[in-house]
Amino acid sequence: MRTRAGRRTAGRRGAKRRRAASKGSRRRAGAPGARHLGVRAKFWLTLGSRTLFGDGKAELLELVERLGSLRRAATRMRMSYRYAWGLLRELDRSAGFRFLEHGAAGKRSRLRLTARGRAFVAAFRSFRAPLDGAVERSFRRVFRR
């Protein structure tokens, strides 16, 4: 859209964005509504001072198991193949066993979790499940939700 002076304007979409932005700025800064206040906690398994395993690597491994491909799993998680491959290579080295294996002969076959890898991911998920509930209960107790 152009004005009479020939300048380009944002048009209808720009006007909608400006109105939406101004509505948000009318709220009090720093005072979240009680219904919007929540809690999230992260837990990692460590090896010395280094992080070994957490939700991100567990999700990556579960996606590889489901999709059969590290490249597709990495793409789904919006990370590069090289970065995902490096994460898993470091995980294998640190843990002392392989997490993934090819399902058949040849490098182009589906990837899957090894038995030890599957047990490790399951143990991590079992460890995490009660912690999420405990964090949520503590949050509700302290913030009276």
Describe the structure in brief.
With 145 residues, the chain is mostly helical.
Please explain how this structure is put together:
Helices cover 54% and strands 9% of the residues. The protein is mostly helical. The protein has a domain at 45-143: Arc Repressor Mutant, subunit A (Orthogonal Bundle), CATH 1.10.10.10. Strands 1-2 form a two-stranded antiparallel ribbon. The chain has a two-stranded antiparallel ribbon with strand order 3-4. The longest helix is centred in the last third of the chain and has 29 residues, at 115-143. The protein starts with 10 loop residues before the first helix and ends with a helix. Residues 25-31 have low confidence and may be disordered.
CATH architecture type of the domain at 45-143: Orthogonal Bundle
The total of helices stands at 5
Tell me the CATH superfamily of the domain at 45-143.
Winged helix-like DNA-binding domain superfamily/Winged helix DNA-binding domain
CATH topology-level fold name of the domain at 45-143: Arc Repressor Mutant, subunit A
Global morphology = extended
Helix content: 40-55%
Radius of gyration: 24 Å
Please tag this protein with its features.
145 residues; mainly alpha; Arc Repressor Mutant, subunit A; two-stranded antiparallel sheet; 5 helices; 54% helix
List the helices and strands and how they pair.
Elements: H1 11-25, E1 45-47, E2 50-53, H2 55-67, H3 70-76, H4 81-95, E3 100-102, E4 111-113, H5 115-143
Antiparallel strand pairs: 1-2, 3-4
Helix pairs in contact: 2-3, 3-4
